Automatic annotation (TrEMBL), chain A:
Pfam family, one: HODM_asu-like
InterPro entries in the record: HODM_asu-like
Name the record gives this protein: DUF3445 domain-containing protein
From TrEMBL, chain B:
Lineage of source species: Bacteria, Pseudomonadati, Pseudomonadota, Alphaproteobacteria, Rhodobacterales
Key words, A-Z: 2Fe-2S, Dioxygenase, Flavoprotein, FMN, Iron, Iron-sulfur, Metal-binding, Oxidoreductase
Names of the cofactor(s): FMN
Pfam family, one: Fer2
Coiled coil spans: none
The protein's enzyme class: oxidoreductase
Protein name per Swiss-Prot or TrEMBL: Phthalate 4,5-dioxygenase oxygenase reductase subunit
Domain called FAD-binding FR-type: residue spans: 4-109
The EC number(s) this enzyme carries: 1.14.12.7
Domain of life from the UniProt record: Bacteria
Amino acid sequence: MTIQFNDESFRDDYTFHNSDWAIKRFPFPFHEDSYMYSVNMEQHKGGPEGSVYEMRFDVDEHYVSEMKDRALVLDQDPLRCQSLPHMTLAGWDLLELIMVSKSEDYPDLFELHRNGNQWRWINKPMGIDHSFTFMDETTLPYGPMEYITRQAQGDFVVLDQRDEMLWMDAGMVTTQADWSLDFDIGMNFFEWHAPVPKAHEMGIFKRALKFLLNIQQGAPARRLNWTMTVNPLLDTSPENYHQWGIQKTTLTPENIGHKQHLRVELQTFFRLPRSNALVFPIRCYLCSFQDLMTAPKWGRRLHRVIRDLPDELATYKGFIDNRPMMLDYLSQFDDGLPTSAGVWPDLETEPPLAK
Amino acid sequence: MSGAEKIQVKVTEITPLNELVTRFRFERIDGGHLPTFSGGAHTVVEMQDGGITRLNPYSLMSSPFDQSSYTISVRRDDQGRGGSLFMHQQVKLGDEMTISYPVNLFSLDLRARKHLFLAGGIGITPFLAQIKQLELLHGHWELHYACRNEGLASYADQLTDRHPNETHLYYDDQDQVIDLKNLLRGQPLGTHVYVCGPKGMIDWVRNTASADGWPEDCVHYEEFLAPQPGKPFEVRLAKSDKVIHVGENESLLEAIEREGVDAPYLCRGGACGQCETVVLDHDGNFVHRDHWLTDEEKAAGKKIMPCVSRFEGKALVLDR
């Protein structure tokens, strides 16, 4: 597989765009015409060929530009990447996991050559060819977690496991949906989820914690989460809310199709071998409303989900004010026909829009 | 499929250490690398013992960073249900076996400034891997290892040779006892205590530390229970719509698996909580033996851990 990497921006002039290939493989998160929280975990052991679930760490056309955006964020705010002192071993575990996975899954893009602890890492898209000593921090330009996550799409949260609890003790977080690593660092699982409405009462977090504590080596898991973002912004952080929050007011009936994006997170969970920590990669995919509407099934379904979503969730996800305008737009693509089950677009079998 | 992922291995070394303990080395059948792991992890070894599939957990004692082989040490239990006897008497060099990926329920707290290890008998094995891990990471540790006598002190020689300043040995037959109270009081701030051994020793360490004001999350322990034989009993599995018979020498979990019902598990020793099963109805008494359920839960009779616990009475119905 050869990927044509886009030259694009996620800020200022927003030249981000999805190719037809990227739209078709977009991880649409709604498997039915309504949405409510669930733990919705499944094993992360591959998926349909070409889908974002196929590889352990998906690489797509946005890779090179996303890494440039991450470097910009870190330049302005180094606290987006933090690792408490006891988490260095987990950082090496993560570096190994990503290097081994990428070199095996994308041999044309990445190479890893190991001779004992002498490692050579080649990242062709980013033009990196680096020899270093595994477990010797002095041979890398950054700590191991920062080094490898500057070369991997998505945010990474590394959770220490102690006393039947998970602790957010390290992470690289520059593409987040309005939460802050600097604020959450050192918190436990219940503390950092405290702001989420409804889910606590539903017992979701207790069940989720129990599941996560038992994720074992060799058996990673995954789930999807979603929100809405105006303009293709990767960095929707609380730290920069003054810059992006106001952009939500720029939405008009004329520009909503290309400005409003569905933001989907592919969340995966891997047990790390040496540290017994858990890494939680949160990979962000953006797709504009107008691109989503090219799949008739997604058009019908997105309208119904957004229309019927409880107000608390629309508020928490930050689009309650824009919901009426979103529904005006989306209703044009809902002809009332039934939709097939599951998340896939089913382009060949779903009827075209009858409206 | 329940439990951790599986690995096909062959037995490449069998080393009797003393009259009770034998060491086994496993290498992958396909010649590839085994996963690295964290000190304190165990593997579940599958044994095809006649018509019975036994799945016993053993602590990995080799270096967590050595991917060429895993080693475990098995203490023979003549009163047990036969898992350790199978390992000692039936397993031969070159045999092919199935083991699970490493699972760690007894990992180091990597924030600790110092790790204080307290081992009793065969409880030494997880510490052997943790010590190797800390050697590579330049960690600060100390070991106090109590055994019945010198002859049964597995690995005492190599520990004292390699780590003369960190290793302290105690022999019961010489009336040597760990001076626990003073040992705990002499520890620097930031020390974590780990204990692995018989139940009495674990209780002693936890109670002594607690009485002296040690925070609970600085005291770590691991005790794998082996399922004990007991009176046979019958169970109705409501979801699977089956009535099964649990024999004298098998656990409830093993009986469920024998009937082809997939039930979750990890440690099979009453510690991890994975096999927790809802009791729908019962008329009789539970023999709860796990460390997972609280005393209140055990008294309530609404849950059972089928890996180690049993039942005596007229009827038991499980949500499985």
